[in-house]
Design a protein that fits this description.
Blueprint lengths: L1 E7 L3 E3 L2 E2 L1 E7 L3 E15 L3 E48 L2 E15 L2 E16 L2 E4 L8 E7 L2 E4 L9 E4 L1
Length: 171
């Protein structure tokens, strides 16, 4: 079953849901527990708090996004703050935003006038950072690639001296 929700000037509260879902929310907040199945989420001027997500395409403008655990996410946002504890694969198109990511498997995409704070990268990064910053505090032993293009951005990579790295950096 497919669920489609559209709400303006009100909040949405969801329990667990398994299946396809589409949500268009403006000037309201979304709070959900476990959402499994494809999700298409558009939020303008609102905050999102979700415990777990399997597969989602998210557009967030002018709000906050809080996630405990996500598998495969495509995030397109403007002027947002994103907080996540664990994401397996994140495809990012972010502008004027802030990201606080605890554990991230794969990150690909681009950021513009945004700051990314990543505690632990576990698999790979392919990112174009323009006018902002990236603070990568730790890389796991299974990181296979770090491809980074930077233009007028502050980049901090914490590398451990006993490990070897294959890093492609264009500044």
């Amino acid at each position: 079953a497919r669920v489609t929700l559209q709400n303006k000037y009100g909040d949405i509260y969801l329990t667990d849901y398994s299946g396809s879902m589409s949500i268009d929310l403006s000037n309201g907040n979304l709070k959900a527990h476990d959402l499994s199945g494809p999700l298409n989420l558009v939020v303008n001027f609102g905050d999102v708090d979700i415990q777990t997500l399997d597969e989602a395409e998210i557009t967030l403008n002018y709000g906050e996004f809080h996630l405990d655990e996500g598998q495969q996410l495509k995030l397109n946002n403007r002027s947002a703050s994103v907080y996540a504890q664990q994401i397996n694969h994140l495809s990012l198109d972010g502008k004027r935003s802030k990201y606080y990511l605890d554990e991230l498997g794969i990150l690909d995409g681009e950021s513009y006038f945004s700051n990314l704070d990543i505690e632990l990268l576990t698999r790979s990064l392919n990112l174009n950072v323009r006018y902002g910053g990236l603070d990568l505090k730790s890389m796991g032993s299974k990181v296979t690639a770090l491809d980074l293009i930077s233009n007028d951005a502050d980049i901090t990579l914490v590398l451990e001296p006993e490990k070897s790295y294959d890093i492609h950096l264009l500044v």
